[in-house]
Amino acid sequence: xxxxxxxxxxxxxxxxxxxxxxxxxxxxxGYVIDLLNCEHMSPDxxxxxxxxxxxxxxxxxxxxxxxxxxxxxxKQIFLMDNGENCYPCADCNSWVWWEExxxxxxxxx
Length: 109
What we know:
- There is one protein chain.
- By secondary structure, the protein is mostly beta strands.
- The chain has one domain.
- It contains one helix and eight strands.
- Mean pLDDT is 79; it is low at 1-5.
């Protein structure tokens, strides 16, 4: 097992407008961060990881729960290990978190 090297960790607050369509961000230092492999802080202060990623084209015109703008087809929506969905909305420039009662989510309980 490798030792955890804290020097490899990057603490970075990603503005939603900087998230690219492939779910990555390029920092001002030139680092490419894949958000699928990062811990995210929920609005409740809970650290959580993405379980899977889906796009709005599967969801048929899903709207941002915060500003009601249609979520762009090329943007990724993250399903987090705490059961919430997380989306970087460029229209309201915020990370939007919400829960949905889906029949297939029984395995998260």
